[in-house]
Design a protein that fits this description.
By secondary structure, the protein is mostly helical. The protein is 80% helix and 0% strand. The chain has two domains: 1-190, MFS general substrate transporter like domains (Growth Hormone, Chain: A), CATH 1.20.1250.20; 208-416, Growth Hormone, Chain: A.
Length: 416
């Protein structure tokens, strides 16, 4: 993570500042939006679940289409800038409505959905803009700094968000979330990276191009299948972990918070060490190792037993290990996509990956709940770990293990 030369580049420095502010504001929203629904408009468990679904639905519905539109028309930085200011306006509508006594559950659903829509466009364009600001051999270091910022803001933001919600009420605390999007957009407006040109007609510009590109590449097929299964497994466990900690392990909310907070520390350490580990192991071996160890961390959950302190420590160990290796896997995966995917189809491929990886998450959460009801919480967590390990094992291919450096130009996919 020691790459001060990155911050000598004005564009990356401004981008980093904007993203750090935005990530901090996002943590306020994690608490403030559901609390606004519960405390202000009296939402119950079903309504809060629907609110969460409204926020993630656009990733499943729009990612592939958004990737095609962005590759066809270009102007990726502008897309991200518009997304930032649009998210700011959507979030700001909540405290405004609250101030005038007109906040409703329907508005919260609509705001969550709109934020999800603009998150899709921002996320699909993100990698192409980042690549245009740094050299390809700097991508691991740049991603490490950004993921480190995410880990720090997650740790600080959740704590600060709770304080702000208590002091200001949930809707008013969202003003700071809106402000964070404005800061991010302002920083994007101050950079002008040289982006890849829009897709040429010969490459095609349809919504299925990204999926076809992945299908034609045995390497990308394996990577997407592996990451999809791992995401499914992780969200199977995420959906029941808190319930398991309370009902089976009899932990207090404070103990659960401390145990899960180990994940934020692990994410920061993962970001800080990724460049060094990648240099020593190579890019492909890093992805293979982290893809196996990451779901292996899930095995700690069903293994937790004994006194509350020991059980909480076991959960914390699993969270820590999973978080460190999840960051390594994410950065390695992003770098391999940088290598393997041509610039003019990058957003479409990102859209395809986002559709699968985001789309399996609600499926995993529902499956985890159903499985826990059928066979018990501990057994459901064990099943999720086994599925995750199966997903990680799919990455053990010669094509992946042979990637030991970061080439300067992307490859063209080949068929089997």
């Amino acid at each position: 993570m020691r790459s001060p030369e990155l911050f000598e580049e004005v564009a990356f420095r401004r981008f980093f500042i904007g993203q750090s502010a935005s990530l901090l504001g996002d943590q306020f929203a994690v608490l403030a939006v559901p609390l606004a629904a519960i405390l202000t408009v009296g939402a119950g468990a079903t309504q809060v679940g629907a609110l969460t679904a409204a926020g993630v639905a656009p990733s499943l519905l729009l990612s592939v289409w958004a990737g095609a539109r962005i590759d066809r028309h270009g102007h990726r930085r502008v897309v991200m800038l518009v997304a930032d200011f649009s998210r700011a306006a959507a979030v700001l509508s909540i405290p405004i409505a609250y101030a005038f006594g007109g906040l409703t559950l329907l508005q919260l659903y609509l705001v969550a959905f709109l934020i999800g829509v603009f998150d899709v466009f921002f996320g699909v364009a993100y990698q192409a803009v980042l690549i245009s600001m740094v050299r390809r051999d700097q991508y691991v270091a740049a991603s490490s700094w950004l993921r480190g910022s995410q880990a720090v803001t997650q740790t600080v933001g959740l704590t600060l968000g709770g304080v702000l919600v208590s002091a200001l009420t949930a809707p008013i605390a969202l003003v700071l979330n809106a402000a964070s999007f404005v800061i991010s957009g302002t920083q994007l407006a101050r950079i002008h990276p040289t982006e890849p040109p829009p897709a040429k007609p010969a490459h095609g510009q349809g919504v299925g191009d990204g999926l076809r590109w992945v299908y034609r590449s045995p390497l990308l097929r394996a990577v997407l299948t592996s990451s999809g299964l791992t995401n499914l497994a992780v969200f199977m466990s995420t959906g029941v972990l808190t319930l398991y900690a309370i009902r089976t392990l009899h932990l207090t909310p404070t103990a659960i918070g401390v145990a899960l907070g180990a994940g934020a520390i692990g994410a920061f350490i993962g970001a800080a060490t990724c460049t060094r580990v990648e240099t020593r192991l190579g890019l492909g071996p890093l992805l293979a190792l982290s893809s196996l160890i990451y779901p292996g961390g899930l095995l700690f959950y069903p293994a937790a037993r004994g006194p509350a302190l020991l059980a909480a420590a076991t959960l914390a160990a699993g969270e820590f290990i999973a978080a460190v290796t999840a960051v390594w896997a994410d950065i390695a995966l992003g770098t391999i996509l940088t290598i393997e995917v041509a610039d003019d189809i990058r957003s479409r491929v990102n859209g395809a990956f986002r559709t699968i990886n985001q789309g399996v998450r609600p499926i995993g959460a529902i499956a985890g709940g159903l499985l826990a009801t059928s066979i018990g919480l501990r057994s459901a967590l064990l099943c999720s770990a086994v599925i995750g390990l199966l997903g990680g094992s799919l990455i053990l291919r010669k094509q992946v293990l042979s990637i030991t450096s970061t080439p300067r130009s992307p490859k063209t996919p080949t068929t089997d």
